[in-house]
Amino acid sequence: MDHRVSRRLAVGAALCALAAPALLASGPAAAQGWPNRPVTLIVPFPAGGNTDILARAVAAALSDGLGKQFIADNRAGAGGNIGGAAVAKAQPDGYTLLFSTPGPVAQNRLMYKSMPYDPDRDLVPIVLIANSPLIVTAKKDAPFKTLADLVAAARAAPGKVNAGIPGQGTLGHITSELLQASAKVQFTNVPYRGTSPIITDLLGGQIDVAMDFMSSYVPLVQSGTIKALATTGAKRSASLPDVPTVTETGVANFEASAWYALMAPAGTPSEVIEKTNRVVNAWLKTDKAKEVLASMSMEPNGGTPEELKAYIASEVAKWGPVIKGAGIQF
Length: 330
Known about the structure:
The protein is of the alpha/beta class.
């Protein structure tokens, strides 16, 4: 071989060798120095609700902790599946994350005939942020004072008790189904478009009970305008410490809570997962975080990505039979 050709080949090989590390470092697997530009935090529900409020508080904490702006981006629709799909299909470089409720990562797969993504395959867990129990309330002049009274009334007259729920397939809906299955009673679920119309009809006496997120009902319970029969968490809520849990009233092993978690596209670098997890866990221990969560009747969680993964699996296992038994499908 001509020595000039050989020399050109050698130089070319050397240049390739020098370029290879740079090419590798530019891919998502490295993510050195992340974040070095703003990060989008997709919130799969409309602005203004508790989910959005908490997401923006977490985004602010991440901005402070990591030195780059985290921007909440509301992508509502299809029970959270639109926002979930946007993250599942995003580049796994750490610059698109999901602020999720149970629907997009656990429950929707059990209700929707077709999902635009596979939560287990396309998303990876970062951290469980908080949970929020629901509350079972009754109109002021209801003939029952406790959940045990409600169960007795429903057994005596199956289907006669009207239960307001915030829409088909919502956590309020499947919590009602879980309570009916666990207590072996039958309610007539009355679906509404959100919380406000439920409260209006509960105050007006058009429905007997409601099963919904706590925060909007706490002031009404405290003022004596409606009755609180039980909360659905594993322990009593700090917002209403005198109200027993469903389990305390005699329905064994009952727990139903909303929860909020951060997820990332599958393949996101471990550095992104670790940094985000660390900042959120630190924030959850601050007085500011406790104040934000308490204002919405939420409890802080935290923990590792592995613990969140196991928790999601347990939620799928718990709600699967309930949703199938109730025939909830979209």
